[in-house]
């Protein structure tokens, strides 16, 4: 039953239009997730009003509330017709890091009592936008208002001060600190002498967990909690903050169905209290289930905002991808030879399962999917960096030893990792040293590396790959991103591999060098090398791959031939939204 | 929408309370191993040499421990934030020599003023460390290694060959480390008060709790909006104040102060904190543990002397203690992690 209890604003809460329940004369009104009023009503109004707070327990407000403060319940009055002031409005936001523009036009508007979805491909600028709202990044340009007032955030504390709360995809708990204190850090309840009261903190945490229907011991340290439990603690934290604006950056990635439903209930409760919620997710079923409006971003730009009921998944996907995927990255057709790599039923508990595919000589197989789908994890397991629980990897007809990268390298595999600065190169060593790193055994005589041979080999490969450097002796860190990537490629090509895994080969590389890297990969395939290319950039996958495998949440959801692969078909498989559209 | 039933406060407490009883909480205390080691050491040594626990023996023991205890408490503050301050020996030296200079050149200066000046000088030197660490974003190990030599160099050029002796200082100042209350030396009581204040700050004040959060995960602390730089700076500054206090007390306790006073103390201090259960990787431990660690290390030296063990072995034993402290800590955390995983698996 929807009733209005008008409470004086001096109580700190406006309780208009929220759902109330009653038993006899006793009325209960959920004012916010942390505050609940219970009052006993008679003809004259409220005779007793009790404020229940998740943080502080019950607190009787009566007798001061008698008289004029509390009006008797009346029938629901609809809110006035004018458009409500947005809780949060960001318009034309720009954020650049040096020459790289991460956000060219960030626009988002969140109304009070609305759950607003933000969708876009990897690299569309969603994370940058979230970090601006969270106060982690400073705006270069643009208009930013909260509740109609212009704001400038210098740091996270400023963002919190206006009532913005963020739940990140990766929980950010303090491992050495208890669960209870993790929820309340920086605002722990105080007891006698103004000191932190552990008992109050514990019972407040318990009340929050009861409300969420979970059992987590508030006294244990956060270390060792499952990701799902950590995420629940983040949610509890957000609830206890009584946020006006809650931002959830892919919060469901680690949650199971029940937990997701719980999270949604929390979001709906907050919405009922007039909070504005920004929900970022790649799962369209969730977006369409939960959200009132959807904003689409692409390439750092705002594209459109739709009311959820007026739009289809297909339309959203088109807008997310919506660019001309033409002949930007042509792979030359190469004769496809024998099968080089066969992966059968590969699985690792909680990471990926049931992964089977083949790669043939001269073929570029694209591995597409969203961040966190498990693509890199599969590649690392195939190469032997990480172990796997079941399945097998067969390479050139023999079964590879699991968890043994040395054996893979010796057999003729190469791996160009995603993070070349951390995993692909030794940044402080010279170009020559880096290039010859994989050749150490071959260049060594009696265990000592022949420096001259090292230099010759390095020079040869650098020349072949057009690495632009004034001297082979300069540290790799002095090169541009594109040239660094070429050094990594050179390093592996020098081992004369039969199979090469390239993980995000052009991430962070300028457009000019990008096409050079693509030409290189195409050349390699032409020479009969089998290539598995992980890429989050759809144009790259579409332009380069002979065949596309699409992963979603640890499984391969589609295998598409070059003809079948379109931005739409890949996005559908990557978000597992096929059921919805068919 | 339904309204969740309001849980009467206290009801759920009882169900969980049984699981984590008082005994369990005691066993989980990080200070437990070091305390047990201290008790065992005192008992064994007293059996071997009954004079060890005589009133005079106790007093000597506490006097020797007091200064390292105060330094270890300050060091714990810094280590908890995942930093370290190696310059404390040099700060102590500068303040101790400054104390000697003050008494010698300003006759009749009130003792309280000397304490305040000493602590202010310590605060200044500590703040320099803190500013360098937070602004330059260079690991504290390197920064404070640098200031260790700089402060010592200043002390050297200031003092030259000059030394001040106990005779240059008022008698009341020297008697701080002679007089006892109920058998406890006055300076030890000063140390206990200081430890209590810092312990309360770290346990019961929000800013103090922030130090643990910062040490536990500095990146998360930034994401969470904790003023990381300000807090770390403050930890270094407090540590400087305590090193300053230790410097003044040093001048009271020991006969001479000069250019080399306090040289090499920093390593004993870090060792005391680590043995006392302050994790070198930050985020956990307590100042009480650090203080007990300091007491344990001093007691070992005295005990080994009391049972006539070679000086060389004393150092080796201290080394073994440090290693066992780290290993015990590691084993404990691995076991807890496994236990937590198992209990979680059962819940599912």
Automatic annotation (TrEMBL), chain A:
Region (Disordered): 64-85
CDD domains: ABC_Carb_Monos_I, ABC_Carb_Monos_II
Keywords: ATP-binding, Cell membrane, Membrane, Nucleotide-binding, Repeat, Sugar transport, Translocase, Transport
GO terms, molecular function: ATP binding
Residues covered by the ABC transporter domain: 88-324, 334-578
A Pfam family hit: ABC_tran
Keyword check for Signal: no
InterPro entries assigned: AAA+_ATPase, ABC_carbohydrate_import_ATPase, ABC_transporter-like_ATP-bd, ABC_transporter-like_CS, P-loop_NTPase
Matches recorded under SUPFAM superfamilies: P-loop containing nucleoside triphosphate hydrolases
Biased composition (Polar residues): 66-80
Superkingdom of origin organism: Bacteria
Name of the protein described by the UniProt record: Sugar ABC transporter ATP-binding protein
TrEMBL record, chain B:
Entry's transmembrane regions: 32-54, 61-80, 182-202, 232-251, 257-280, 287-306, 312-332
Keyword Heme among record annotations: no
The organism's place on the tree of life at top rank: Bacteria
Record key words, sorted: Cell inner membrane, Cell membrane, Membrane, Transmembrane, Transmembrane helix, Transport
Main location group: membrane
Membrane-protein topology: Multi-pass membrane protein
Localisation per UniProt entry: Cell membrane
Pfam families xrefs: BPD_transp_2 (PF02653)
Name of the featured protein: Autoinducer 2 import system permease protein LsrC
Native organism taxonomy: Bacteria, Bacillati, Actinomycetota, Actinomycetes, Micrococcales
């Amino acid at each position: 039953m929807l009733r209005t209890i008008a409470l004086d604003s001096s109580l700190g809460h406006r309780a208009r239009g929220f759902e109330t329940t009653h038993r006899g004369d006793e009325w209960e009104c959920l004012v916010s997730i942390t505050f609940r009023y219970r009052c006993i009503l008679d003809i004259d109004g409220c005779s007793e009003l009790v404020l229940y707070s998740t943080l502080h327990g019950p607190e009787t407000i009566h007798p001061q509330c008698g008289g004029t403060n509390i009006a008797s319940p009346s029938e629901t009055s609809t809110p006035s017709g004018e458009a409500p002031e947005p809780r949060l409005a960001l318009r034309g936001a720009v954020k650049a890091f040096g020459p790289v523009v991460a956000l060219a036009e960030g626009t988002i508007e969140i109304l009070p009592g609305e759950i607003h979805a933000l969708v876009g491909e990897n690299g569309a600028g969603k994370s940058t936008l979230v970090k601006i709202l969270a106060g982690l990044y400073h705006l270069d340009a643009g208009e930013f208002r909260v509740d109609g007032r212009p704001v400038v955030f210098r740091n996270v504390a400023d963002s919190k001060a206006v009532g913005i709360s963020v739940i990140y995809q990766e929980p950010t708990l303090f491992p050495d600190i208890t669960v209870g204190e993790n929820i309340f850090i920086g605002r722990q309840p105080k007891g006698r002498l103004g000191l932190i009261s552990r008992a109050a903190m514990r019972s407040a945490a318990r009340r929050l967990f009861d409300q969420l229907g979970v059992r987590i011991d508030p006294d244990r340290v956060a270390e060792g909690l499952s990701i799902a439990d950590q995420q629940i603690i983040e949610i509890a934290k957000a609830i206890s903050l009584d946020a006006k604006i809650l931002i959830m950056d892919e919060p469901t990635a680690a949650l199971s169905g029940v937990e997701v439903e719980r999270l949604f209930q929390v979001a709906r409760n907050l919405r009922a209290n007039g909070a504005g919620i920004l929900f970022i997710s790649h799962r369209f079923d969730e977006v369409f289930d939960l959200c009132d409006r959807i904003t689409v971003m692409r390439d750092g730009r705002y594209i459109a905002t739709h009311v959820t009921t007026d739009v289809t998944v297909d339309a959203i996907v088109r807008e997310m991808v919506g660019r001309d995927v033409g002949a930007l990255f042509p792979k030359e057709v190469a004769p496809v030879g024998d099968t080089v790599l066969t992966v059968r039923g590969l699985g690792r508990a909680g990471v990926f399962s049931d992964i089977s595919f083949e790669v043939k000589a001269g073929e570029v197989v694209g591995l597409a999917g969203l961040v966190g789908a498990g693509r890199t994890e599969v590649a690392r397991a195939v190469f032997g960096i990480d172990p796997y629980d079941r399945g097998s990897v067969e390479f050139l007809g023999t079964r590879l030893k699991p968890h043994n990268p040395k054996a893979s390298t010796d057999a003729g595999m190469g791996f160009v990792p995603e993070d070349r600065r951390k995993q692909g190169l030794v940044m402080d060593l010279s170009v020559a040293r880096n290039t010859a790193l994989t050749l150490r055994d071959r260049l060594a005589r009696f265990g000592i590396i022949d420096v001259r041979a090292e230099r010759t080999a390095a020079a040869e490969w650098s020349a072949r790959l057009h690495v632009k450097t004034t001297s082979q002796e300069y540290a790799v860190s002095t090169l541009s991103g594109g040239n660094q990537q070429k050094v990594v490629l050179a390093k592996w090509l020098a081992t004369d591999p039969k199979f090469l895994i390239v993980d995000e080969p052009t991430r962070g590389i300028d457009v000019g060098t990008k096409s050079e890297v693509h030409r290189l990969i195409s050349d390699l395939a032409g020479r009969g090398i089998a290539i598995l290319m992980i890429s989050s950039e759809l144009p790259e996958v579409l332009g380069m791959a002979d065949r596309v495998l699409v992963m979603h949440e640890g499984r391969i959801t589609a295998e598409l031939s070059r003809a079948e692969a379109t931005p739409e078909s890949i996005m559908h498989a990557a978000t597992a939204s096929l059921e919805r559209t068919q | 929408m339904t309204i969740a039933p309001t849980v009467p406060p206290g009801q759920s407490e009882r169900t969980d309370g049984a699981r984590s009883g008082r005994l369990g909480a005691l066993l989980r205390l990080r200070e437990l191993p070091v305390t047990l080691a201290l008790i065992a050491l005192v008992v064994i040594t007293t059996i071997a040499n009954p004079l060890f626990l005589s009133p005079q023996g106790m007093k000597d023991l506490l006097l020797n421990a007091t200064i390292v205890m105060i330094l270890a408490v300050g060091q714990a503050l810094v280590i908890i934030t995942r930093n370290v301050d190696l310059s404390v020996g040099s700060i102590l030296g500068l303040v101790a020599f400054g104390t000697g200079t003050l008494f010698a050149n300003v006759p009749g200066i009130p003792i309280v003023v000397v304490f305040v000046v000493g602590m202010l000088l310590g605060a200044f030197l500590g703040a320099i460390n803190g500013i360098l660490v937070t602004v330059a974003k260079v690991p504290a190990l390197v920064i404070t290694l640098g200031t260790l030599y700089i402060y010592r160099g200043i002390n050297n050029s200031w003092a030259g060959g000059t030394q001040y002796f106990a005779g240059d200082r008022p008698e009341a100042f020297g008697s701080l480390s002679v007089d006892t209350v109920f058998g406890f030396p006055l300076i030890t009581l000063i140390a206990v008060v200081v430890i209590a204040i810092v312990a309360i700050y770290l346990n019961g004040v929000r800013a103090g709790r922030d130090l643990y959060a910062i040490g536990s995960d500095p990146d998360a602390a930034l994401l969470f909006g904790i003023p990381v730089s300000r807090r770390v700076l403050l930890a270094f500054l407090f540590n400087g104040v305590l090193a300053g206090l230790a410097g003044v007390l040093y001048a009271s306790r020991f006969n001479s102060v000069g250019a080399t006073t306090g040289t090499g103390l920093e390593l004993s201090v870090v060792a005391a904190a680590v043995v006392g259960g302050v994790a070198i990787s930050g985020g956990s431990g307590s100042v009480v543990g650090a203080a007990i660690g300091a007491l344990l290390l001093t007691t070992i030296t005295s005990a080994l002397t009391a049972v006539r063990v070679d000086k060389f072995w004393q150092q080796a034993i201290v080394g073994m203690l440090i290693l066992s402290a780290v290993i015990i800590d590691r084993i404990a955390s691995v076991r807890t992690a496994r236990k937590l995983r198992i209990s979680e698996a059962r819940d599912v």
